[in-house]
Amino acid sequence: MTLVTPDFVEELQQYGDDTVLRCFNCGTCVAICPLINDSFPRRLIRYIQIGARDRILAGGRDLWQCLHCGLCSRTCPRQADPAEVILSLKRLVLAAWREEDTKNV
Amino acid sequence: MFDPKVITALLADNVRKSGNPFGLANGSINTWWKGKNLAGEGGSLLLTGLMYQMVPYINAATGLLEKYEDTPTAERIRFARWVPRFLSAAVLKMKASGEDRNSAARILEDITRILAASGVDFAYRPELDFYSGILLYDLGDLDSFITHARRVAGRLQEAGVERIITVDPHTTWALKKLYPRHAGYAPEVRTYFELADLSGSTDREVTLHDPCFYGRYLEVSQVPRTLLAGLGVRCVEVTGSGPFTTCCGGPAESVSPALALEVGKRRVTELEATGRPLVTMCPICQANLRRAGAEVMDLATLLAGIVENRRTGDSSRRTEDRGRKSEEFPSAAIE
Ligand code: SF4
Ligand code: SF4
Fold first, then answer.
1. Cα B189 to the center of its chain, rounded Å
2. What interface predicted TM-score (ipTM) does this complex get?
3. What is the whole-number distance in angstroms between the Cα of residue B123 and the centre of ligand 2?
4. How many whole angstroms from A70 Cα to the centroid of ligand 2?
5. What is the dotted CATH code of the domain comprising A8-104?
6. Which element (helix H / strand E) includes B234?
7. What residues does each domain of chain A span?
8. A52: closest CA among A12, A98, A102, A104?
9. Under an 8 A CB cutoff, do B140 and A91 touch?
10. B236 or B321: which carries more pLDDT confidence?
11. What residues of chain B lie within 8 A of the CB of A90, using their CB?
């Protein structure tokens, strides 16, 4: 079951991103990404849009595959800036992991 | 893939302690300038950002990580405790290859030759040559990046540095775009090849691999092409070039050498399709493309070789012994 976090987009804004809602899921970024890996980065953007915060955290490590090369952002027809979205997600996930560690100490 | 949390914590801790991601004293990494009699005063400050100097340690670390990535041993070991020990400064220092160190030093020396031949007034002060912290930014550790950037910016401001010459795309991006935003410091930043004004002539063809930050983020890929064209070097293009360049894969090497290699190999296939000698202008790209099996020359080596050949062939000019004969320049090998 996926828990929906309705204010996830606002939470992510604190970590830098404010373009994610522009994405209309065309898939250009997936086609051009040098990782040629299933649906990275569109899948992550869709998760953000639907508030699937726990899914992002569960697969958090995969974010670090991103090379921050920017090819997706360059070719995105909606200026959704997926490369920056992923960088913001890395910041959010790092913060969540650190918070977890603090709780566990 | 290694745990990004552990790798990021290790690198951030090293940057905090030593100013660079390897926990080694900057002075022990940065030795290329010794005996070069570079001016310490005047004009713009040449700031290498230590990226070229770090390549021998990056190669050593990647070699170690590569050995254990996705192996049963890796699974059994708790990386949080283990990684810092096996990636310690002492181990990396021991494993860094002398040839890699010499190669980085030669490229930096070539850059100073290019600046001198272009009549650029520049100074080099090793005590002000800092690592930018860019890896922390790319890994998502914004707080650690900002802390480091502010420390570096403070030192440069204190020294009155207003104009900086950079040598690699990552440091250029950091100083030009990230430092003004995150450290309140906005010096004038130019790459050495933007300042190059060279004469010389040759007749050859090469293929350039544009680093992402030069090609896409900073949009300066036309500059080396124009410079090379003026010297008689034609660039044979691949589809992924300029603003649409394909990444070399290098940025993944700290968390996944296997992924970095896979992406690097795909890029090498694209580049080698032209059949021309490959040239790039980023130490990370050069290192990763080499790891993926390609012969890749640095732009500075190519440029300095052409300038040097012109000088040694022109008897009206003073041809001082610069410690290396013209035929030793790799440019001779690509004709
Ligand atoms: S981020 Fe841009 S390129 Fe990717 S799916 Fe959304 S609109 Fe398309
Ligand atoms: S920035 Fe990341 S997601 Fe975008 S194309 Fe490059 S590797 Fe793929």
1. 16
2. 0.95
3. 37
4. 6
5. 1.10.1060.10
6. strand B233-235
7. 8-104
8. A12
9. yes
10. B236
11. 4, 139-140
